[in-house]
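Task: encode each sequence below as C-alpha cells.

Item 1
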Amino acid sequence: MLFTQGEIQRQVDELAGRLESSLADGEVPILVGLMRGSLVLMADLVRRLSSVHVDFLSLSRFSQSESGSGRARIEKDLEIDITGRRIIFVEDVVDTGLTLSYLTSSFEARNPKSIEVLALLDKRARRIIDIPIDFAGFEIGDEFVLGYGLDYAQLYRNVPFLFGVDDLDVLVRQPDAYFSFARELMRGGEEAQQAAK
C-alpha cells in the first residue's frame, strides 16, 4: 500500500487548490488528460475547480523494432483550439519525461499561452528528460504502481487507492493476482488501507 483513498483525495484537494489559486480572474484553463491513466484523476480534479475546459489525448507508442524510431504518435488529438490558451497536461504518473517532452514541443507549435504539467505521481528515479512538473503530488520510487487509474492489462483502474507490485512476474503470469487484495482493502475502507501500509 502506497497511498490510501483518503490520502489521494487530500492530495487532489491540494493540487486543485494550488491550480485554482494560480488562475487569473476569468481565466479558464484547458486540462488535457492523457488517456487512459489520467481519467480518474481528471474526474476528481474537474469537480474541484470553478471553471475549466477538458480534452483528451491518446498516444500510441512504438518500440524501436516496430517503427524504427521508438517514438510516440498522437492517435486521438485535441478537439479544442488551444491558440492563446493556458494548457495543463494532466498525468497519472511522470516517469522518464519522454512523453511529456514530446507533447510539449509538439504543442508549442500550436501557439498556446502556456503549457504546464500536473501529475499525481512523480517517479523522478526514472527521469531521462528533466521535464518540469508545475503541480506535483506524491514522489515515488521506481516501483510498478496500480490503482486510481493506473492499470495492468486494463485491470485495477477502478481501485481507489495506489499500491506497488513487488513481484511483477506474478502479475505478468496472472493479471488478476492482486484482485483479492484490492477487493479486501476496498471493502475495509480507509482503516484497512492504513493498516496495509
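Item 2
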Amino acid sequence: MIKAGPEVVVPVPSPHTLGNLIDALEVHYPSLRHTLRDQEGNRRPYIRFYACRIDISFWSWESGLPESVVQGQEPLLVVGAVSGG
C-alpha cells in the first residue's frame, strides 16, 4: 500500500511506479479519470506531482517511486497549478 497523504491510501501493484499509482487512483476514484492525464495518457499541463520535496512531474510513468513514498513515510502530493497575469 502506498499512503498518498493523510486522507488517501491506495493499494498500488508492484512495480511501484508513478504510472501504476495514477492507474490505482483512477480505479479507486473513477472521477479522477482523465483529470490527471489526458486521453493519450500524458500528464495534463497544470498538474504537478511531488515526492520527498522533489517535483517528479516530468518523470517517466515507468519511474519507480521513492522508497519513503512506497513505505508511507512521505506523501506523494498531487497539486493543481495555476497561471495568470
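Check on item 2: The domain at 2-80 is CATH 3.10.20.30 (Ubiquitin-like (UB roll)). The chain is about 20% helix and 20% strand.
End of task.
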